[in-house]
C-alpha cells in the first residue's frame, strides 16, 4: 500500500488534532481510514489536501458540520469566494505594508507617529478593523519568517496597546451598558484580542472592565459580582490549546450565575464544533459590535415596555 500516512502524520500536516479527526470520521465519514498489512489504521495521503482546505475555512469562521461533507472542489470554490469577499482593499494593504516597513526598520518614532496619524484619520473603529487587525497578523507572520525578532513584536505590542488605551479613555462611559468584564483564561497571555474587544465595545456604548490576561476561573465570578458585570467576555488566541477550551468553558459556566451572559471569541475559539449551553460564540469583531448593539436595544425595549408611573392623586399633589 503506497501513499498512505498515519493519523499522527495527517494531523501534523493538516493542523487538525487527532481527536478531532477521529470525531469527524465517526460523525461525517471523513477522513476515510484504510488498513495496512499489520492491520493498523492509515489514511490515503491525498485526503490531506481536503483537510487543509477544511482547516482554512474553519479558521475563517465556518463550522465543521458545513464543511467536512463537502467535496474538495466545492471547498476550493468556497475558499475562493471567501478570499474575494474578504480581501483587504489595496489602500488598507498599503497602509499595513508601510507600517510593517517602519517596524522592520526599527524606526520607532516614525512608527508611533504613523499609527497615531491613522487612528486620527480613520477613527477608533475603522482603525481596529481595517488596520490593527490585519497588522497584528502581519506582525505574527513576519516573526514566524524571521523578518523581525521577538523584541520588535514586543515594541509593536506595547505601542499599539498604549495608543488604543488612550483612545478608549476618550469614549468610555462609566454608566454604559452592557457592563462587560473582559479577560483571558489562565495560560492565555495574548492581550491584543481583549484590547480590540474593549475598544469596539466601549465605542458602541458598553462599559468595559478589563482584568488583563490570565484571570483564574474561580476569580471571574467574584470580579463579575464586584464590578456588577452583565457579561463575561473571554478571548482565546490560536496559541491556546483547543482541547482545553470546552472543559474550561463548562467549568466557567458552572461558577458564573446563569443570569450572566458569557461571550467568547478569538482565533482559538473559531471552528469549535459546539459550545456549552449559555456560552455565546462571537466569530468576528463585527459580531462583537452587533452583540453589544443588540444588547443595548433589547434593554431599551424592555424599559420602554414598562407601564408609566400613575399620576399622583389630588391628595398627593
From TrEMBL:
InterPro entries the record matches: Cbl-bd_cap, Cobalamin-bd, Cobalamin-bd_sf, DNA-bd_dom_put_sf, MerR-type_HTH_dom, Meth_synthase_dom
SMART domains assigned: HTH_MERR
Span of domain HTH merR-type: 6-62
Single GO MF descriptor: cobalamin binding
Pfam families reported in the protein's UniProt record: B12-binding_2, MerR_1
Superkingdom: Bacteria
SUPFAM superfamilies: Cobalamin (vitamin B12)-binding domain, Putative DNA-binding domain
Protein keywords: DNA-binding
Positions of the B12-binding domain: 177-311
Name the record gives this protein: DNA-binding transcriptional MerR regulator
Organism in which the protein naturally occurs: Massilia aurea
Native organism taxonomy: Bacteria, Pseudomonadati, Pseudomonadota, Betaproteobacteria, Burkholderiales
Amino acid at each position: 500500500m503506497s501513499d498512505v500516512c498515519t493519523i499522527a502524520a495527517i494531523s501534523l500536516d493538516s493542523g487538525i488534532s487527532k481527536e478531532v479527526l477521529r470525531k469527524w470520521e465517526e460523525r461525517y465519514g471523513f477522513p476515510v481510514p484504510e488498513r495496512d498489512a499489520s492491520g493498523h489504521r492509515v489514511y490515503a495521503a491525498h485526503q490531506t489536501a481536503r483537510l487543509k482546505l477544511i482547516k482554512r475555512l474553519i479558521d475563517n469562521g465556518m463550522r465543521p458540520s458545513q464543511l467536512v461533507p463537502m467535496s474538495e472542489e466545492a471547498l476550493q470554490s468556497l475558499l475562493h469566494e471567501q478570499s474575494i469577499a474578504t480581501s483587504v482593499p489595496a489602500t488598507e494593504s498599503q497602509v499595513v505594508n508601510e507600517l510593517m516597513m517602519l517596524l522592520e526598520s526599527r524606526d520607532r518614532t516614525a512608527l508611533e507617529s504613523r499609527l497615531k496619524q491613522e487612528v486620527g484619520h480613520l477613527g477608533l473603529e475603522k482603525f481596529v478593523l481595517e488596520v490593527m487587525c490585519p497588522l497584528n497578523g502581519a506582525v505574527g507572520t513576519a516573526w514566524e519568517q524571521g523578518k523581525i525578532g521577538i523584541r520588535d513584536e514586543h515594541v509593536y505590542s506595547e505601542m499599539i496597546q498604549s495608543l488604543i488605551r488612550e483612545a478608549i479613555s476618550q469614549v468610555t462611559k462609566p454608566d454604559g451598558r452592557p457592563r462587560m468584564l473582559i479577560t483571558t483564561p489562565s495560560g492565555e497571555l495574548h492581550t491584543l484580542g481583549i484590547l480590540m474587544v474593549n475598544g469596539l465595545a466601549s465605542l458602541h456604548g458598553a462599559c468595559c472592565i478589563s482584568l488583563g490576561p490570565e484571570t483564574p476561573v474561580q476569580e471571574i465570578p467574584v470580579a463579575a459580582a464586584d464590578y456588577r458585570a452583565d457579561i463575561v467576555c473571554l478571548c482565546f488566541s490560536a496559541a491556546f490549546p483547543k482541547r482545553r477550551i470546552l472543559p474550561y468553558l463548562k467549568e466557567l459556566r458552572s461558577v458564573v450565575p446563569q443570569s450572566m451572559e458569557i461571550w467568547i471569541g478569538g482565533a482559538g475559539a473559531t471552528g469549535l464544533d459546539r459550545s456549552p449551553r449559555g456560552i455565546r460564540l462571537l466569530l468576528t469583531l463585527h459580531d462583537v459590535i452587533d452583540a453589544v448593539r443588540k444588547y443595548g436595544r433589547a434593554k431599551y425595549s424592555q424599559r420602554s415596555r414598562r407601564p408609566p408611573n400613575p399620576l399622583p392623586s389630588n391628595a398627593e399633589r
